[in-house]
C-alpha cells in the first residue's frame, strides 16, 4: 500500500523502517498519509491518520492490523460471462490470456471463457506478483494452479494446470524470471 509520511526528521527513519517492514511504500503526494501529531497543521492529503511519537506501540499495532486484514481478505476478480457478471476468487483462476484486444480469464474447470475488462499489463500491476506470473506476451498464470512444468522445445517450458487439459508455454523472454521466482 502506498502512503505519504509527515513527521519530524528525528523519528522519520524509525517510522519509515516500520512501514517498509510491514509492506507499505512511502511516496509523497499519496491520498493516504500517516502524520505525526505535531505536524498536522500543514497536511493536505484527503485521508490522514495521526500518530503520537510517544506511543509508537499503538501505531505499530495499527499498521500490523491493517496489513493482516489486507492479506486475509478474499480477493476476487469480476468476470463477464455471456449474459452476466460473475465473481471468482483469485485462487480459482488458472491463467489470463490476451487475444487481439480482449483479455480472457480461464477458470479451473475451463468450460467457459470469461472476458476481463483490464488489459494484461493492468492485471499484472493489480495481482500478487508472487502468485500471478507473466510467462509470455499474452499470458499471466496462477502458479498455485500449475500441476506440471515440462521442458519444451526452443528453451521454453510448458505448464499444465490442475483439473484442466489446457497448457501454456513460458517463452524465452520470460523464462529466466519465471525460473527465478519458482526456484528452479
Can you count the beta strands?
14
Largest sheet: 5 strands, antiparallel
Averaged pLDDT, please? Answer: 84
Question: Can you write the helix and strand succession as a string?
Answer: EHEEEHEEEEEHEEEEEH
Globally, the shape reads elongated
CATH class category name of the largest domain? Mainly Beta
Walk me through what this model shows.
- The chain has helices at residues 9-21, 56-72, 120-126, 172-182; strands at 2-6, 25-26, 32-36, 47-51, 76-80, 85-89, 93-99, 102-107, 113-116, 132-136, 139-142, 146-152, 156-161, 167-170.
- The protein has 184 residues and is an alpha+beta fold.
- The model has no long low-confidence stretch (mean pLDDT 84).
- The longest helix is centred in the middle third of the chain and has 17 residues, at 56-72.
- The chain folds into two domains: 2-72; 76-182, OB fold (Dihydrolipoamide Acetyltransferase, E2P), CATH 2.40.50.1020.
Q: What labels would you give this structure?
A:
38% strand; four-stranded parallel beta sheet; alpha+beta; 2 domains; OB fold (Dihydrolipoamide Acetyltransferase, E2P)
Provide a quick synopsis of the model.
This protein is of the alpha+beta class and 184 residues long.
Topology:
Elements: E1 2-6, H1 9-21, E2 25-26, E3 32-36, E4 47-51, H2 56-72, E5 76-80, E6 85-89, E7 93-99, E8 102-107, E9 113-116, H3 120-126, E10 132-136, E11 139-142, E12 146-152, E13 156-161, E14 167-170, H4 172-182
Parallel strand pairs: 1-2, 1-3, 3-4
Antiparallel strand pairs: 5-6, 7-8, 7-11, 8-9, 10-11, 12-13, 13-14
